[in-house]
Amino acid sequence: MTNSLEGLGRNAGAAALVLSSLAGGDKHGYALVKDVEEFAGVHLPPGTLYQVLARLETRGLITALKADERRRPYRLTAQGATVLSEYFTAQQRILKTGQARLKRTWTLA
Q1: 52: which residues sit within 8 A by CB, 6+ positions away?
Q2: CATH number, residue 22
Q3: 66-75, pLDDT tens digit by residue?
Q4: What is the pLDDT of residue 28?
Q5: Number of domains making up the chain
Q6: SS3 9
Q7: What is the pLDDT of residues 6-60, one digit of tens each?
Q8: Counting Cβ atoms within 10 Å, is residue 79 exposed (0-12), middle (13-18) or buried (19+)?
Q9: Helix (H) or strand (E) segment spanning residue 78
Q10: Backbone φ/ψ region at 13: left (φ over 0), alpha (ψ -120 to 50), beta
């Protein structure tokens, strides 16, 4: 794994979900939660979401935009897009390896 992937932190899965959502456009917290639920079937609790958002913002992977009343939208940065792409490449290697090993060792329906 490259050093840039470490930018996702210890909850890389949740960070990847948030970055993936923001790759589709700017969103505030509630819209992020709903989008992630729709495309991934995963519910991000508010505590997890805002912890991930703070970490990603600190690491320069997203930026907070000007608040619109009570809602603060977030935007994916170029660095965030690069890290997300690298994360997907690493996950694809893991997926291919795991699938090949299962196919050789197990008979699954």
Answers
A1: 9, 11, 14, 15, 18, 44
A2: 1.10.10.10
A3: 998 889 999 9
A4: 96
A5: 1
A6: coil
A7: 667 778 999 999 999 999 999 999 999 999 999 999 999 999 999 999 999 999 9
A8: middle
A9: helix 78-105
A10: alpha
Sign of the alpha-carbon dihedral angle for 4, 76, 40, 67? positive
Structure tokens at 15: 């960070």
Angle at CA 35, nearest 5°, toward 62 and 78? 25
**pLDDT tens per residue, range 7-19:** 677 789 999 999 9
pTM: 0.87
Tokens 């809602």 appear where? 71
Q: For residue 86, what are the domain limits? A: 3-105
